[in-house]
Specification:
The chain is an alpha+beta fold. Helix content is 24%, strand content 22%. The protein is built from two helices and eight strands, in the order ββββββββαα. It is elongated and about 85 Å long. The two termini are 41 Å apart.
Length: 136
């Protein structure tokens, strides 16, 4: 089987924990007319999880939390459940999709750290090349 390396692209991502966490959700706070409290409208990017055959009282098989604290996001491949703690990635075509925290941490690093690491690597490589030229 052929092997491939992921191209080094810069992505945008936000970690999601509850309704309204995504910066583009644009949720609104409304008061109940009887003064008994208020509610937050559903997010535009990550919506409330709901399913006709699921009351939301069961535990998620991926994270163990109750389903009523989960979100739902539409992706190019269809809808996906968003667990609290998942990252919402904005891809190169401005598409949004969820990513588990462990996978995100293993795959991505902050741009500042990547640039610093690349500069160190380049400096070490240049020093090695200069050293080798001195030996020739």
């Amino acid at each position: 089987m052929a092997k491939y390396k992921k191209k080094p692209i810069i992505i945008e991502a936000e970690q999601w924990f509850k309704n309204g966490d995504h910066s583009q959700d644009d949720c609104q706070q409304f008061d109940y007319t009887d003064g008994s409290g208020s509610f937050l409208t559903e997010g535009k990017i990550v919506r409330y999880y709901r399913h006709p055959q699921d009351s939301g009282d069961r535990s998620c098989e991926k994270c163990g939390k109750m389903m009523h604290v989960h979100g739902w996001i539409d992706t190019l491949e269809g809808g996906h459940i968003v667990c609290p703690g998942d990252w919402i990635i904005t891809g190169i075509a401005n598409e949004k999709y969820p990513c588990k925290d462990a996978i995100f941490q293993a795959t991505y690093e902050p741009v500042e750290e990547a640039v610093k690491r690349e500069r160190i690597h380049t400096a070490e490589a240049n020093a090695e090349i200069a050293h080798m030229k001195g030996l020739l």
